[in-house]
Specification:
The complex is a heterotetramer, with 2 copies of chain A and 2 copies of chain B.
Chain A (H helix, E strand, L loop, with lengths): L34 H16 L6 E5 L3 H4 L9 E4 L5 H11 L4 E7 H6 L2 H10 L3 E7 L2 E2 L5 E2 L22 H8 L3 E6 L3 H13 L3 E7 L15 H7 E3 L1 E6 L14 E5 L5 E6 L9 H14 L2 E8 L6 H4 L12 H4 L3 H10 L2
Parallel strand pairs in A: 1-2, 1-3, 3-4, 4-8, 7-8, 9-13
Antiparallel strand pairs in A: 5-6, 7-13, 10-12, 11-12
Helix pairs in contact in A: 1-7, 3-5, 5-6, 6-9
Chain B lengths: L1 H15 L5 E2 L1 E9 L4 H14 L4 E6 L8 E9 L12 E4 L5 H6 L6 E5 L12 E5 L1 H7 L4 H19 L4 H11 L4 H21 L6 E2 L10 E3 L1 H11 L4 E4 L6 H14 L10 E4 L3 H13 L4 E5 L1 H6 L1 H10 L3 E9 L5 E5 L4 H5 L9 E3 L4 H18 L2 E7 H5 L2 E3 L17 H7 L29 E3 L13 H19 L6 E3 L6 E6 L2 H16 L3 E6 L1 E2 L3 H8 L3 E6 L5 H9 L2 H4 L2 E5 L8 H15 L1
Parallel strand pairs in B: 1-8, 2-5, 5-6, 6-7, 10-11, 10-12, 12-13, 13-16, 15-16, 20-21, 20-23, 23-24
Antiparallel strand pairs in B: 2-4, 3-4, 9-17, 13-14, 15-22, 19-21
Bound molecules: thiamine diphosphate (TPP) (2 copies), iron/sulfur cluster (2 copies) and magnesium ion (MG) (2 copies).
One thiamine diphosphate sits at the interface of chains D and B.
């Protein structure tokens, strides 16, 4: 990984005076060319460019090649590689303990759409404030390439086995279940992915990014619908994405008829220029039907499908004190003698 | 010979006393259906006797549905302070047509039956005393509106019982008015019903049974509480901050009562909560949130029961191996699978001791009293953070949901102890740390919390192979080193968990070992054994796993040791077999009880008697 | 004294033999990275020696990732037929720059190193023989197109090794051509690479190490197979019809190979499958489908490993309590939680024996050979239906994924036995049935299958309280009766499960008990103990849980019994402690191995030696 | 239960000569007035009227008051009351073992939308041929009334606790995930529910019926959005449903502009007359967005939302032999000696 262009920027520092180096992780143990490696690069760049202190970030994951990737970016961030399909609950618990932390979860299509479906749905429903990335390759990489629930009908394995069940569109599902920022990208589309990640960092609420990430070892051949080639040929971008961080001036012009401007929680702006006729990132219903119809047409849409900065996130819903619960002083969390006395009296 | 005689003749014996008075030593059973709102009436009856200074216990035997099925509430009145379940019922209040015949049939000679006259009991037993009561007529007389009558009816039997058992009506009134403190009209109406019942009995019924309550001074300052409320209080005073749960009988009332306390006592001036309580989508998510929160530094907990515990197995192993604090209450119920959800048992202990695949070992706390439910709840959080591992607190339905007398709980003098956590300053001094290094030789490593502002603070948590500095590894020696450190940590735990409690002279030949709610039947049985069989026993109540030296010593000091427990397979015995020197194991004898009812003294006494007989 | 001397001096001893020839008694280790396609080369090397009639075993030590990390494949050549892992490597084929230095460093004196010259090993050890090979040059010489070179390179070392170890090239050619039977061009290319390697060695290298292969006649008719393939074959011949699984290492290859067999041999003329294999969404769903199918009358199975087994806990309890057949293969891997997914262990046995809360007990089959993987797979289905309960077959990564020699499997003569199932005709005769009645006194009730065309056929299956006729109940006596019947059923199982196998005279003072793949190290260790310590031992290999009388008898007949197993906590020992008479338990001593590597004989010998020393 | 009107028909027999009595279950132990009891009645009537042999039916369930109801209808059918939230896998396994059986699963909103979400989604995705009924009361009845994931935002418990998370619309989810017959009804709407049930019996594939079924004990008060009163006031029927069984003549007229006619697998016809403007039971996308928009408007739609008789069900996808796998003779399932010999040869 440390041989990618990025290192050339190593001397440069970001707004908080850190170098890209400070955002690096350990050397990848994934296959050379695995889409997951590129995504890890984009993630660390985004945090670097947004000037986020690495120690303020929690990296969460389940089990899988994808779930290993937190080890390959931002070693200075705290990381929890949990059990298969259960990252959502662990991530939720961690945020309850310390809502002042930022959280990014890396999962796989198997980790999320198969074993993880139950927890995934309930994370979305709670709008837990975190970035949830699915490194989506349509197979179980770490167990050597069985189909996952996002594999398209008719997609073929090297072994010749053909998938005969319809794929689950995790984006349509996420919008329906309550995620407040939902998009799809491709590990090979550096610009789109980077912009989406920066906007994701600026958003507060559940961000679901389904990133098509080819598995070069088990699902990058002819007949695969999750290969580099297939994506390059079928990637159908629904909107051009512009991101203007709070510290940049937003005077830039845009045409309100073709472009939606969304102000995110930290004051930055997301500018979505419509490229697909039924595109409307402000309506859940329309976003979902657009995605469902795309499936029937066999299109693979990418871009930001839905975004709303209005809904309150789960930690706000719970109306907790401002400080992290984890480190409240004992005098705040252990009631006084009079309270116990009162309780005893009630039971006499 | 002799032995069995005495034991068998027990029922007869009591029928002989028929004529003469039996004060403060009998059981009242109210037979009704659930959903009929008899709970408050029963609790008033219980508390009235309690406030006369007479020791009582109340046990509710309810079905696994919501309304309309038979329910039995039993109040045991015991001047000597025995609070375990007693098999024989002396006074039956029969309100349920469906069960009245069997209820009456199973009564021992000499018992009394207060019954709703509409149940018209034709054929009557000559050896029982019957008191017919025209409940409906009396209810109407209270002037209660139609929709309240079902409830009010229960208050009438309180009055009838009060009169027949000479329960002090001033006590009853105080209790009624306390119960309905916030609603004066309700208080008046209910009190009226009690009075009508009382007057009816006084005017119409003639006392023929021997059972009476006589004022004592044995309950002064004491409280009546259920173990789940006690555990909830303990958790609150332990400073719990993150709670995630999924409802399941009989554990739901731990969290539901905790929610009540936290809303009242843990919301700050600005109206914000210094805690988070989340109803998870299932138990996998519940324990997942507990571990996530524990990892991030919160005091986190969940409460569940058998089926939920089974679902937590995978995460329990992660908690053990990745060394993450968390507290899990298991309020045990009867049986494998769904079993009998509203019956009690102690059947999860071996399963939880090794909950998860591949050499996983857990620490268990075993409260036997409601006071310990309170104290161990606090202890559990200190242990979880001190040992960086999940701590399981095993209570049961009997302890958790029934009414128990207790000394009032004491305010914790010990400050919260949060375990080995390094902050940024310490990291500066140390210049870094290795997450899984056994610095102190006790097997317990140091950890940092997410957010610690230091470039060397972060580490990678995983359930897979790791070396001292938390780096991924598959090296045989690293794996072995880490697993052996975990064994050292488990050894360390022995010096931190609650020690067992010994009773008796310590000089007897026969010993008894038990844990949890079995305690109450055991102490009463020891008294029976001594009075009836002249068999003196020593008793050790185990309060935690891993076992501590005291257990070995106790067994070593006795010829025979009966291990008494409420499960089929002798689970505590099995853990002892694994951990004790086999030479000591030869002394152990198993006494089990597993029909879903709380253990009673007579069952223990019979078992010991026959096994002792066998010895001779 | 003497003892330890002998043991310690073992490595020296072999370095003394440096000069003279060592035939058919050494290990070859190929050090490479995974994903480099060395598998087929290694298997060709293995099978070539095998086809010379010389006993071999092959063990692959691979990382828990997909490509690019160190992998070691070890071929043990043993004229005496020892196939357990051997710690010392005699011939190293070093292809991995990352590990070459450590690989060489850990070699014992006298070993040989065949290495890729580009690894340029400067400082060389004087006590080793080095053979540098210009692999890349030789590969180019094969004329292989660029993208194939990485693979072809492996074939070159096959040729080099063949020449240096005097492996018969005609055997090598046959094996190569069999391997690539369907692709002639590939066969030619690969064979060419082998030849080039051979010729290079012949022309350029001078043999200086003592290791050679000499033709024997010890493998005639034998097969080489992995335990997972054997289990898959067993399942197919058992007539399995419903398979539901979720991928997990090292169990995936059970089902993946089964899929291959079923597609080939269980699809009928009309192209329709007489089976269903479903990849479930997780392990909860996998075992759920297995139980649903078992309930409806199918022979159903799943295969998993530690984490998946933990997730099956709740359903396992339902299977036990609702009495539903099903077969679960657990191919054990190392550690709690995720642990070391690509390492072997025997660490799930106690957990599974009581898998689920509240007095749940399961039946375990413990195959120790690939042949037993085949036979026990069949046995498991008969037992599951015969006993109406889930049956767990515990294999492990070593047995399941490595290459083992074996006698060919025998075709099952015993017809499928489908257990106590009543059809419509029988129901007519009986005029109905009671699902949970112990008609035969063996604890095993009768069942009907959904769809049985008889008004009295249907019954209600549940995990909650039930009486003999499957009606819901919470009655204490019904619950107790049912739980005791389940105990009787477990007793019955003892007469049905595979009995242990005893080796030795039966007259020795010292006994050894082991199970599963530990077998191979134990038999070799017994030989070492006898040769080196003049310590004769008897040996009992346990093949199932519950234990049968033979186990008690074996322990009773010996003064000391060493319980050898591959886990940290002495899990088999713990089960023995629970089930055996404590007097017998005093004789048991624990020998454990748990670093993730397959157990080797030397480890056992050392442990016994020091413990025996301790005895003196 | 045996005191409901139906018994008046007891003398009558159905097409296969059975009386309603032959379809009865044991006496309910649920609360008097519980919606679940009415649903059990409708179910047994439907099977009676369709003339289905009770022994050909498997009744599946999880855990909950709702999951108990299989005990209260059709005692002559085989029943499996499994564990909480896991009925889908058990039901799937049973159908794999015997695909000739009919299967009906009864679940609750907690059993399905909370703990059961993962298995529910994958059952839908497989289009497992069974009727899946959610007796939906918005609470966990059997554990005394906590909110479930279908409870509406703002819905209030007797205790005053207010639900602050958005509900999961199991119908919209089911359509998106692949169920082929999806509708919602109300335990109090005898006619609508009965018709839907008969059509469901005629359909082959996953039928998901979300039946609002008030919990009289814990969720039938003012402030509840799942009470009898609330449903009577808010029930917004999207289509009038007509069902014509194969053995009845379908000559009945209908207007193709307003009515969709769907021929089901057994030859019977479902006639859906449009009452709601965006109604189109043949388009997944439109059905889903209609449901999602209704939520935003606070409407509770009932009726058949989506139906398609085209997709193949899971047992067909697996291409199994026609007979039940459970009872195939051993000569079919145990290959011959030559097969073992061949396998042994391959390993020499
Ligand atoms: C409970 C459990 N079951 C199965 C496994 C085995 N397993 C490891 S990763 C994986 C699938 C990973 O697929 P995905 O999430 O798509 O990640 P990818 O490897 O494709 O990036 C499985 C089934 C496991 N670790 N735990
Ligand atoms: C694993 C597990 N967790 C929790 C429970 C306790 N439990 C029984 S029923 C139920 C919820 C039932 O709610 P729902 O499915 O909506 O059915 P209802 O009673 O409302 O009809 C719960 C949580 C259980 N039986 N098993
Ligand atoms: S197997 Fe596939 S997913 Fe896994 S690391 Fe290799 S390329 Fe990536
Ligand atoms: S509690 Fe509610 S759901 Fe359960 S039976 Fe009673 S009314 Fe029905
Ligand atoms: Mg994947
Ligand atoms: Mg419900």
């Amino acid at each position: 990984m440390s041989t990618t262009p990025v290192t050339s920027a190593a001397a440069k520092t970001n707004r908080i005076g850190l170098q890209v180096l400070d955002y690096r992780g350990s050397k990848t143990t994934l296959c050379a060319g695995c889409g997951h490696n590129a995504i890890a690069e984009r993630i660390l760049e985004a945090y670097y460019e947004m000037g986020i202190q690495p120690e303020r970030v929690m990296k969460m994951s389940g089990i899988g090649c994808s779930s290993k990737s937190p080890a390959y970016f931002m070693s200075r961030s705290f990381s929890f590689n949990s059990v298969h399909g259960r990252m959502p609950s662990v991530a939720t618990g961690a945020l309850l303990a310390n809502k002042t932390m930022r959280s990014i979860g890396i999962s796989g299509d198997g980790d999320t759409a198969s074993i993880g479906m139950g927890q995934f749905v309930h994370l979305l429903r709670r709008n837990v404030p975190m970035i949830y990335i699915i490194e989506d390759n349509g197979v179980y990489g770490l167990t050597k390439g069985q189909f996952s629930a996002t594999a398209d009908i008719g997609s073929k394995l090297k072994t010749g086995v053909v998938n005969d069940l319809a794929p689950i569109d995790v984006c349509a599902l996420a919008i329906q279940m309550g995620a407040t920022f939902v998009g799809r990208s491709f590990s090979g589309d550096k610009k789109q992915l980077s912009t989406m990640l920066k906007a994701a960092i600026a958003h507060r609420g559940t961000v679901l990014l389904d990133v098509i990430s080819p598995c070069v070892t088990f699902n990058d051949h002819e007949g695969s619908t999750k290969s580099y080639k297939y994506m390059q040929e079928h990637d159908d971008v629904v909107s051009e994405i512009g991101f203007i961080p709070p510290y940049e001036d937003i005077a830039v012009e845009y045409d309100p008829d073709t472009t939606v401007d969304v102000q995110l929680h930290d004051g930055s702006h997301l500018r979505l220029r419509k490229l697909h006729e039924d595109y409307d990132p402000t309506s859940k219903g329309r976003a979902v039907s657009m995605l469902m119809e795309a499936h029937e047409k066999g299109e693979i849409l990418t871009g930001v499908f839905y975004v709303s900065a209005k809904e309150e996130d789960f930690t706000s819903t719970l109306n907790m004190v401002d400080e992290p619960l984890a480190t409240l002083s004992s005098d705040r969390v252990r009631p006084g003698r009079e309270v116990l006395a009162e309780l005893m009296q009630e039971h006499r | 010979m002799a032995i069995s005689d005495i034991v068998q003749s027990q029922p007869m014996a009591s029928s002989l006393v028929r004529s003469k008075k039996v004060a403060n030593d009998f059981s009242i059973q109210v037979a009704t259906v659930n959903g009929s709102g008899s709970q408050s009436a029963n609790s008033i009856l219980l508390r009235s006797i309690f406030s006369m200074g007479v020791p009582v216990s109340g046990k509710n035997l309810f079905p696994s549905n919501i309304a309309g099925l038979p329910t039995w509430f039993t109040i045991r009145v015991s001047g000597q302070g025995w609070v375990a379940r007693k098999n024989d019922i002396d006074v039956l209040i029969a309100m349920n047509a469906e069960t009245v015949h069997e209820d009456v049939h199973t009564l021992q000679a000499g018992s009394a039956v207060i019954f709703d006259e509409i149940l018209n009991l034709e054929e009557r037993r000559a050896d029982l005393t019957y008191y017919a009561v025209p409940f409906d007529r009396l209810v109407v007389a209270t002037g209660a509106e139609a929709k309240l009558r079902k409830l009010i009816k229960n208050m009438v039997y309180v009055g009838v019982a009060a009169q027949l058992l000479s329960i002090d009506m001033t006590c009853v009134e105080t209790v009624v008015r306390k119960q309905f403190a916030k609603k004066l009209k309700a208080a008046d109406l209910n009190w009226k019903a009690v009075q009508l019942g009382y007057e009816y009995a006084a005017s119409t019924l003639t006392k023929e049974d021997p059972y009476v309550v006589e004022a004592m001074n044995a309950t002064h300052g004491k409280i009546i509480v259920d173990g789940n409320a006690a555990a909830a209080m303990g958790a609150m005073f332990a400073g719990v901050t993150v709670v995630s749960w999924y409802p399941i009988t009989p554990s739901s009332s731990v969290v539901e009562q905790l929610i009540g306390y936290m809303k009242k006592y843990r919301v700050e001036e600005d109206g914000k909560a210094n805690f988070a309580i989340v109803q998870a989508e299932d138990e996998l998510a519940a324990i997942g949130m507990v571990l996530g929160a524990g990892w991030a530094g919160a005091r986190s907990m969940t409460a569940s029961s058998g089926p939920g515990i089974s679902l937590m197995a995978e995460f329990a192993g992660l908690g053990y191996f990745a060394e993450i604090p968390g507290v899990i209450f298991d309020i045990q119920r009867t049986g494998p699978s769904t079993g009998l959800p509203t019956r009690t048992a102690q059947g999860d202990i071996t399963f939880i001791a090794g909950l998860s695949h591949g050499d996983t070992k857990h620490i268990l706390l075993l409260p036997g009293t409601v006071k310990e439910c309170f104290e161990f709840a606090m202890e559990a959080f200190d242990l979880a953070e001190g040992l960086q591992t999940p701590i399981f607190v095993l209570s049961d339905l009997d302890l958790g949901m029934n009414n128990w007398m207790s000394e009032p709980f004491e305010y914790p003098e010990k400050p919260l102890s949060r375990g080995k956590v390094l902050d940024a300053k310490q990291l500066d001094e140390l210049g870094g740390f290795a997450r899984y290094k056994d610095v102190d030789g006790d097997g317990i490593p140091y950890r940092t919390l997410p957010g610690t502002a230091h470039p060397a603070a972060a580490y990678f948590t995983r359930g897979s192979g790791k070396n001292e500095s938390a780096k991924y590894t598959e090296r045989p020696e690293d794996y072995e080193y880490n697993m052996l450190r975990l064994v050292r940590k488990f050894e360390t735990a022995k010096s931190m968990v609650p020690k067992p409690i010994a009773e008796g002279t310590g000089k007897e030949k026969v010993g008894i070992i038990a844990f949890g709610s079995s305690h109450w039947a055991v102490i009463e049985s020891r008294d029976q054994l001594e009075r009836e069989l002249h068999l003196k026993t020593d008793y050790l109540r185990v309060r935690a796993y891993p076992f501590t030296r005291e257990v070995d010593d106790f067994v070593a000091k006795h010829e025979t040791v009966y291990v008494v427990e409420q499960n089929r397979d002798g689970q505590l015995l099995n853990l002892l077999k694994v951990d004790l020197d086999p030479a000591l194991v030869t002394k152990l004898q198993s006494i089990t009880h597993f029909n879903g009812l709380p253990l009673d003294a007579r069952t223990v006494t019979r078992a010991v008697a026959s096994l002792e007989g066998a010895h001779k």
